[in-house]
Amino acid sequence: MTKKVIIDVDTGIDDALGILLALNSPELDVVCITTVSGNLGVEEVTRNTLQVLELANSEKIPVAKGMNSPLSPDKKEEEIIIVNGKKVNGGEYFHGKNGLGDYKLPQPKTRPVKDHAVDFLIDKIRSNPHEITLITTAPLTNVGKAVMEDPKIARLVDEHIMMGGAYGLTPYGYGNVTPVSEFNVWADPIAANKVFSSKLST
């Protein structure tokens, strides 16, 4: 039996690979993909997501464009990090200017659905109670906003699997942005707190 999944992405190289793996898994049924700013702004992320789906001949999977700004007011769209003593844009440094390693794919022919990703998430979860596995590989802005608008959906999600957290080299973990922060949590800590404080089974 396949597992219904919704994937929430900020499509850079890692998310693109995750999407392709999910599409090719016989165990997963990708219901839809929602996009959010993170590695890039939401317009670029949405473009990349549509390009990856078209590359995989999976353009029928609906894509909903979501939040372009974090819930956390002190966070900016661009992630500035220090590499070898220099300030660089982290998204560009790791994923290239276009988010896909500067590999040029054709401009997408498909378009995102008209619904905002937050509304789309709420609708899909409510339409498939206790059946959806929510996979987040991006900042939790869309999901945080969704549980703020409709807190009851948290109990209707079967499980939430996220790319986030810091673990490893010290007793306090080891993050990829700070010693204790992973990017997706660091990029929108208020949204992360909303999700962790909800009834989502993360």
TrEMBL record:
Stored InterPro entries: Inosine/uridine_hydrolase_dom (IPR001910), IUNH (IPR023186), Ribo_hydro-like (IPR036452)
Domain of life: Archaea
GO cellular component terms, A-Z: cytosol
Keywords: Glycosidase, Hydrolase
An example Gene Ontology molecular-function term: purine nucleosidase activity
Record Pfam families: IU_nuc_hydro
GO biological process: purine nucleoside catabolic process
Domain Inosine/uridine-preferring nucleoside hydrolase: start-end pairs: 5-199
Signal peptide start-end: none
Gene3D superfamilies listed in its UniProt record: Ribonucleoside hydrolase-like
Designated name of the protein: Inosine/uridine-preferring nucleoside hydrolase domain-containing protein
Species of provenance: candidate division MSBL1 archaeon SCGC-AAA261G05
